Amino acid sequence: MAARIKKGDLVKALAGDDAGKTGKVLQVLPESDRALVEGLNFVKKHMRKTQDNPQGGVFEKEAPVHLSNLKKEES
Fold it and tell me: Which among 15, 28, 62, 69 has the fewest CB atoms less than 10 Å away?
């Protein structure tokens, strides 16, 4: 699938829990046909206590979304 969506584009989610929301593309992963979009598809990540992260705990971060579920918005 040719990726017409590029880093920095404004996209809209077409399917899933975040359908209808828009966000900016942070990164495109062409080998898996996915993109990381700011503010879409949050997942909870459990982090162990380390020197870098002495608090530990549960954090939310964006997960990649399949390109077929994204539509480029006209700006």
Answer: 15
Question: Residue 65: what residue type?
Answer: V
Q: How are strands ordered across the β-sheet holding 10-13?
A: 65-66, 34-37, 22-29, 10-13, 70-72
Instruction: Output the CA–CA distances (angstroms, integers) from residue 31 to 3, 28, 35, in the order listed.
Output: 10, 9, 10
Q: What does pTM read for this prediction? A: 0.82
β-bridge pairing 57-62 and 34-37: unpaired
Which domains are delineated in the chain? 10-72 (2.30.30.30)
Q: Give CA–CA dist 63/40, Å, rounded.
A: 8
pLDDT tens per residue across span 28-66:
999 999 999 999 999 999 999 999 989 999 999 999 999
User: CA–CA separation, 28 vs 42, rounded Å?
Assistant: 17
